[in-house]
Amino acid sequence: MTSEVVSSELDELYRKTVLDIGIPPRPAILDQLGQELRSAEPDFRRISDYVSRDVGLAAGLVKIANSPYFGFRLRARTVLQALNLLGLDVASKALAGIALRSEFSGRPSLERFWDASEKIAEYSGMLVGLLGQQQGVHADDAYTFGLFRDCGVPVLMRKFPQYREILGLANAEPLRRFTEIEEEHLPTNHALVGCMLAQSWSLPEEICQAIRHHHDFILLSHPGGNLPAASARLVALSQLAEHFHQRKSGRSQGHEWAKLAPACLAILQLQPEQLDELQQALSHSLQQHA
C-alpha cells in the first residue's frame, strides 16, 4: 500500500471523527450573502435587512467598519453604511468572524482567546500593508485567516473537558508539531477541525488549507509542495503577527515561533535582524489608525 493511499485513508478517518465531534452549521446569513455576491447586481439594502435582523451581527459589523484597522475617514452609523464602506466581499468575511465568536458566546473562559485572535488578525492584515501584497494575499484575507486560524480550539474545548490540559502540553512541546501532541490524547486536532469548519462555512480554499497546516513546520519548509503559496504566506503572516503580539503583551509565550520561524521568515523573505524594525513600523501604523 502506497504512502499516498495510507495518507488518504487517514484523512478520511479524521474527517469522520471531526463530523462526530460536531461542526457548527454555516449561519444562514452567510448563505444569503453568498447569493447576493453571486448575483449580477447585489442589493445592499436587502443584505442590510438580513444583517439587521440579528442585533449582534449588526452591531459587530458597524464596529468593524469603524475600527482603527480599516481607518475609514467616514464613520458608519448603520449596517447599510458599513456595507458600503467595507464592500460585500470584506463584509461577508467580517460577518463570518462575528458569527464564529457568537457561536461560542456564553463561555467567559474564551474571552482572552477571542481577544488574542482579533489582535493577531489585525496585525496580520497590517503586515500585508507593510510587506506588500504577494501570492494573491490581500489584507482582508490575512485578517480573516487570523480570526479563523484557531477556530478548532473552541470546538474541541466544548466537546472534550480535558482539552485545556492538552493545550498546555502542546504549548510546552519544544520540538514536535503542536498537532502531534493533540493526537496523542484525542482522535483529531484543532487544525483539522478548524479546516473542516472553514470549508463548511465556504471560506476560500487557500484559507482552509492554511488553517489545516498552520503548525506544520516541515511542510512550510518546502514551498511549492502540497501547500498553495497563498496558504503558506497566510500562515507566515499570522505566525509573525502572533510573535509580535506575544512580544508586546508578554502573554502565551510558547515554542511555536521557535519551531516555525525559519520557514516563515523564508516565505516572507525576511531576516531575523529585520524584525525589530518591522515591529516598530507595525506599532507606528497601529498608532496612526488609533
From TrEMBL:
Name of the protein: HD-like signal output (HDOD) protein
Highest taxon above the source species: Bacteria
SUPFAM superfamilies in the cross-refs: HD-domain/PDEase-like
Domain HDOD: 23-217
